[in-house]
């Protein structure tokens, strides 16, 4: 009996010794890990410094370089052409109406290094003629960037639209960019330059009344994303500009009344969407546009950075601070939540009540 008691006590002591040994080893291991953290942080800091030394420095000016910008009659393209010309770039400003007010004001307000091109991005012959003009007038360092800015916008519920409405939107906003990009990529690739694409928050934010516009911009971003991966091997940087509500600053919004929409509808749709709702939707949309940015400065700054920075961003989301929080959270939310956002608006609550109403 006593032998059993002694053996049990010995076993208990052995277990305690083993526990202390394991605890000591764990403590030693934790101490080693804690000791490694400062060393790792120091190594990461030194690595970051080393990488920053080899990071390309931003361009001080554009002397000797050329930039092509589409859609320079007004808006972002018009302002960017002036800024890049001021920085010393030879700017080829593509305008739909080269004799129009916008194009001629560029001629008056810039140096001789700005060349107006007649450029309708929906016409292959215009694009090819623009390419020939650019090649014949290149400065010593050649083409540096193509800014695909030309675009249109419109608002309309999908059932208020026709196939031709979608076709016109896509032909300019998407196919126009593709047509221009394919023509000028060999020049930009040789210079290891930049390709910029002006998209929109509506490329990822599914807003009622913006169906055709969203289709064109979502397609544009898919094209630009694929191009970025392909061009990385050649040292070409591709950036996407995503402006928010700049309708008032650019006058890009097509002005139309509820009556304009109503008169396009056939009898069946007039029975579905009553006139009062269409008038209310028109007023709501236009008032929303007026609540946006009053000038283009933040977009132009982003475009200048994408053209001249040593490390341009892949995407430039240009919205208010509050909207930025929402749009960065947006892709992480379930669809049921993102769709429900519109139920917070009194206008969309009334929409359901007014459908089919006389």
Architecture overview:
The chain is built from 14 helices and seven strands. It has helices spanning 2-54, 75-86, 101-109, 124-136, 163-191, 211-231, 247-250, 258-264, 267-272, 275-290, 297-308, 321-329, 335-340, 346-354, and strands at residues 66-69, 90-95, 114-118, 143-148, 194-198, 237-243, 315-318. It has a seven-stranded parallel beta sheet, with helices on both faces. Helix 2 (75-86) packs across helix 11 (297-308), helix 4 (124-136) runs parallel beside helix 5 (163-191) and helix 10 (275-290) runs antiparallel to helix 14 (346-354). Residues 1-6 have low confidence and may be disordered.
Key features of this structure:
358 residues; alpha/beta; 7-stranded parallel β-sheet; 14 helices; 7 strands; disordered N terminus
């Amino acid at each position: 009996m006593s032998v059993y008691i002694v053996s049990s006590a010995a076993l208990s002591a052995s277990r305690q010794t083993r526990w202390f040994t394991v605890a000591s080893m764990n403590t030693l291991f934790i101490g080693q890990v804690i000791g490694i953290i400062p060393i790792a942080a120091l190594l990461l800091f030194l690595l970051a410094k080393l990488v920053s030394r080899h990071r390309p420095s931003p361009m001080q000016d554009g002397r000797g370089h050329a930039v092509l910008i589409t859609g320079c009659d007004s808006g972002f393209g018009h302002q960017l052409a002036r800024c890049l010309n001021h920085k010393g770039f030879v700017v080829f400003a593509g305008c739909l109406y080269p004799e129009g007010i916008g194009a001629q004001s560029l001629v008056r307000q810039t140096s001789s290094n700005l060349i107006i091109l007649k450029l309708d991005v929906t016409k292959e012959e215009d694009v090819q003629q623009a390419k020939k003009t650019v090649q014949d007038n290149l400065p010593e360092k050649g083409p540096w960037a193509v800014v695909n800015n030309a675009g249109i916008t419109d608002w309309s519920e999908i059932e208020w639209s026709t196939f031709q409405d979608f076709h016109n939107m896509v032909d300019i906003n998407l196919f126009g960019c593709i047509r221009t990009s394919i023509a000028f990529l060999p020049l930009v690739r040789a210079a290891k330059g930049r390709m910029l694409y002006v998209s929109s928050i509506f490329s990822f934010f599914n807003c009622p009344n913006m169906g055709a516009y969203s289709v064109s911009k979502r397609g544009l971003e898919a094209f630009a994303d694929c191009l970025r991966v392909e061009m990385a091997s050649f040292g070409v940087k591709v950036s996407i500009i995503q402006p928010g509500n700049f309708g008032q600053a650019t006058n890009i919004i097509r002005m139309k009344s509820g009556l304009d929409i109503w008169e396009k509808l056939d009898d069946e749709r007039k029975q579905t969407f009553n006139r009062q709702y269409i008038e209310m939707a028109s007023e709501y949309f236009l008032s929303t546009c007026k609540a946006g940015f009053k000038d283009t400065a933040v977009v132009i700054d982003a475009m200048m950075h994408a053209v001249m920075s040593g490390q341009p961003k892949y995407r430039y989301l240009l919205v208010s601070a509050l909207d930025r929080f929402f749009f960065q959270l947006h892709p992480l939310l379930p669809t049921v939540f993102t769709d429900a956002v519109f139920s917070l608006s009194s206008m969309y609550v009334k929409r359901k009540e007014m459908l089919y109403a006389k």
